[in-house]
Amino acid sequence: MTILQNISLKPYNTFGIDVTAKQFATFTSVEELKELISNSKFKTQNSKLILGGGSNILFTKDFDGIILKNELKGIELVHQDEEYFYIKAAAGENWHSFVLHCLNHNYAGIENLSLIPGTVGASPMQNIGAYGIEIKDIFYQLEALHITTQTVQTFNIEDCGFGYRTSVFKTKLKNEFIILNVTYKLRKKAVLNTSYGAIEKELEAMHIAEPNIQSVADAVIRIRSSKLPDPARIGNAGSFFKNPVISKFRRHAIAERFKDLPSFVIDDMHYKIAAGWLIEKCGFKGFRKGDAGCHKDQALVLVNYGHAKGSEIFDLSETIISAVKKEFGIELEREVNIY
Ligand code: FAD
Ligand code: NAP
Questions:
Q1: Does the beta carbon of 16 sit less than 6 angstroms from any atom of ligand 1?
Q2: Cα of 131 to ligand 2 centre, how many Å?
Q3: How many CB atoms lie under 10 A from the CB of residue 6?
Q4: Residue 96 domain-assigned (yes or no)
Q5: Which of 21, 63, 130, 169, CA to CA, is 20 to 30 A from 266?
Q6: Is residue 120 part of a domain?
């Protein structure tokens, strides 16, 4: 067990922000993790952060505390019944590699979540979602280590408080648990969901008349690769803001002014509005100040063109929030975790 001092975090966050961590250690086993959190160097720090792939984080300053990077590995089929395979993956597994593993074994239901960066352990944190599927749709249970008591607790779906890009781990139990592994429930017989976003159009372009989980995953990968900036080339953390949910009355008022308003029914009284569209209408698509910017093809994604400080990206997000509030009366909420 080695605790390193003053480590650059640039390789550890997809925004590519160049800040340092006062202390930094990796763990590859639960025993090693328990040893780390028992150490006085861990216990005496006020700020503690469990890091996965750093793809949903913005560092706005040097991290004055300890960061533990999760390197727990392993994937196993733990159970099956008539309908489902139950697959347990260690929290440090790369998410997309895990998706590919499932596709190779014909485990269905995860295909729409292809090419999302990050780790398995972070997937329940914000109930990751894309193309109409969220973690909650394929979740069975997870095990997490309570930092103070060092006990391992099992969370079933009803314990996780999953909501739109949120869970108890991001809210009520924030900073209390380290997720060790997640078990997903994947179908033996696929039930494809191709109606969301551009999947159907992409399948057509691929000349696929009878899609399967592999071709749906391929379509999602093609769409994502064509419109989202690759963090290896332009720093970003995906969607910076959540899509706001507003009342049907407010939606009606906005739709009177803007006939092209993209909105989706949530229930009788509420609609989800595409945050990217709101930001674009305020003129920020392609906006750049120094090295901080708003992506040219997807306004919801804030980017680091090279040497932006985290505080500059954060300031840009503040400017965007104010502009959207002024124009539409809607308060955007950040999806990315700010440190
Ligand atoms: P990190 O950024 O390392 O951590 C995020 C938060 O989770 C932190 O608060 C961290 O402390 C906590 N955490 C991480 N691991 C653990 C653990 N084991 N135990 C306890 N806490 C933990 N998200 C979507 O939902 N849908 C998308 O389609 C999507 N597309 C993206 C596209 C791009 C190009 C990028 C850059 C990001 C995208 N994201 C998307 C956001 C991001 O990929 C996900 O939120 C991902 O799950 C973050 O994983 P991570 O391991 O990088 O988490
Ligand atoms: P898109 O397909 O251009 O759609 C724009 C927005 O409209 C999306 O945000 C999506 O909401 C919503 N939408 C589209 N079709 C819908 C439907 N049939 N029903 C309800 N809502 C619908 O979006 P995109 O930017 O290319 O992203 C595609 C998918 O990947 C989305 O699900 C998005 O959430 C996900 N994604 C997430 C991140 C992230 O960091 N969180 C980054 C990139 C992409 P939802 O976002 O609620 O799905």
A1: no
A2: 6
A3: 10
A4: yes
A5: 169
A6: yes
Global confidence as pTM: 0.96
- 92 and 59 inside one domain: no
Ligand 2 atom closest to the CA of 126, numbered from 1: 41
In this structure, is residue 145 part of a structural domain?
yes
Find the catalytic residue in 111, 123, 165, 263: 165
- Domain limits at 24? 4-70
pLDDT tens digits in sequence order for the chain, 339 residues long: 799 999 999 999 999 999 999 999 999 999 999 999 999 989 999 899 999 999 999 999 999 999 999 999 999 999 999 999 999 999 999 999 999 999 999 999 999 999 999 999 999 999 999 999 999 999 999 999 999 999 999 999 999 999 999 999 999 999 999 999 999 999 999 999 999 889 999 999 999 999 999 999 999 999 999 989 999 999 999 999 999 999 999 999 999 999 999 999 999 999 999 999 999 999 999 999 999 999 999 999 999 999 999 999 999 999 999 999 999 999 999 999 999
- In a shared domain, residues 60 and 149: no
Instruction: Write the residue with the smallest CA distance to atom 33 of ligand 2.
Output: 130
Domain of residue 246, CATH code: 3.90.78.10
- Of 134, 143, 312, 335, catalytic: 335
User: Looking at the domain assignment, is residue 210 inside a domain?
Assistant: no
